[in-house]
Amino acid sequence: MLDVGRLMLCVSLKNSKVVEARSRSTRPQAASVLQGKTPAQVMQIVPLLFSVCGKAQGAAAQVALHAAEGDRALPDERAIASEAMQEHLWRLMLDWPKLLGLPSQERQFTVWHGLLRKIGNGEADREEFLREFEQLALGMPSAQWRVLDGERMQSWWRNAASPLAAMLLQLEEDSRGGAAIPRLLPAWSAVQAQQACTGRWDAAFAASPDWQGAAAETGAWTYYADAVMLRETAQRHGTALARVLARLLDMMSLADGSAAARLDGAAVSAGEGIAAARTARGLLLHHVRLEGGKVAEYQIVAPTEWNFHPAGAFVQDMRGVTVQDEAGLKRLARIAALSLDPCVAYDVEVRTIHA
Amino acid sequence: MCLGIPVQVLEVHETYAICAGRNGRENINTMLVAEVMVGQWLLVALGVAREVITTEQAGQINSALDGLQALAEGGAINMDQYFVDLVGREPQLPDFLSKDHR
């Protein structure tokens, strides 16, 4: 049986305080199957093999391979923008209500997911989704909502009559208070990624990436690192709420067309290329080196490996937390994990160390 | 980069389908794909069907996954025997789907 990989998240409690948090992954280095393949084969299989964000993976492969061959053209972003919105909706409308014990929004989700698929294929306009979402979920124009500060955003989720606002309110109630801003990985361009990662491209880096020797967090938050609402929300209510709000901010920016470009590519040298893609979960990097028209080396550095690094955002979120009992800690750990949105299945284990 | 697994539809229900794939029989959530039919191949991640795929695509993915599985189990192997150069190859059906068992 093929093991597609799992995350094991383990948190230990002693005297009502978290004394240890660990994150371990059994994900296979799937990019190794690309070794020896032609660019055409890689582009055919990547979107199918990595299907959770298949459009982004496929586009990143295309950009990296073209860059390696000296072609700087970037593909149309419509499909990957729609895919990112679908992933955001999935968390916001299905996963979060389920985790927090709120009513399911499966019906509305399915309708919007289908509409976004059409938008990605060029069969519908994103304005259509934007109008419906503004009306049913925000209760105000996206352009106004996006620039609210922390205090106004809080009063929005406390007062708006939508399941989305109710979900954020529940997260506020679950919050353990404010937190310091984590070390956010910059939303690199391809050239910046190459400068930061040069000489590091190998399987060990792909499995456990770091930036200047330390773990860093990626995600929608890093695309809007300057947004006042996110900084203030983190300082008032903690990182989980800031991350969830960042996803909503990213979705609205994609929906109303104000988001920055999602894809970038750069040639490192003849036959070697890099792609940087802003996916729903965070920065996705592809690095390829071709030799004689075939893949000599291929690395994919995905968001989950940054955020669930052994010293990464999940572990840092849990460290030093005080909580009454195992049940409370389990809920908190699940909230932290989902806010970082791993793209593989995960287990959360909580145990008490008796003094 | 969660991996997608191809499965074939055995039985269609309102919001899910009973499917068979390389990891056995499982119930797959089908709310995101329109009109699921018996015999169709679905690409599944985390228990949810992402899209309907062709038999050829299912074969390509399974072949790449075979390569990955062999790597995980045995270390160095010749990856050329796995992968895409098999358009037209029918994916192997699980026993209970082959003619004799239908």
Would you kindly provide a written description of the structure presented here, covering whatever features stand out?
- The complex is a heterodimer of chains A (355) and B (102).
- Chain A has 355 residues and is of the alpha+beta class.
- Chain A has a domain at 1-75 and 183-216 and 261-355.
- Chain A is 49% helix and 16% strand.
- Chain A has helices at 39-49, 54-68, 78-100, 106-121, 126-138, 142-145, 150-159, 163-174, 190-197, 203-207, 220-223, 228-237, 239-255, 303-307, 313-318, 326-340, and strands at residues 6-14, 17-25, 263-269, 272-278, 283-291, 294-301, 345-352.
- In chain A, the strands form two sheets. A four-stranded antiparallel β-sheet of chain A has the order 3-4-5-6, sandwiched between helices. In chain A, strands 2-1-7 form a three-stranded mixed β-sheet.
- In chain A, a hairpin with a 2-residue loop joins strand 5 (283-291) and strand 6 (294-301).
- Chain A starts with 5 loop residues before the first strand and ends with a strand.
- Chain B has a single domain (5-88), classed as Roll (SH3 type barrels).
- Chain B has one helix spanning 55-74, and strands at 5-12, 16-21, 24-29, 41-45, 48-53.
- Chain B is elongated, with a radius of gyration of 14 Å.
- Chain B starts with a strand and ends in a 28-residue tail after the last helix.
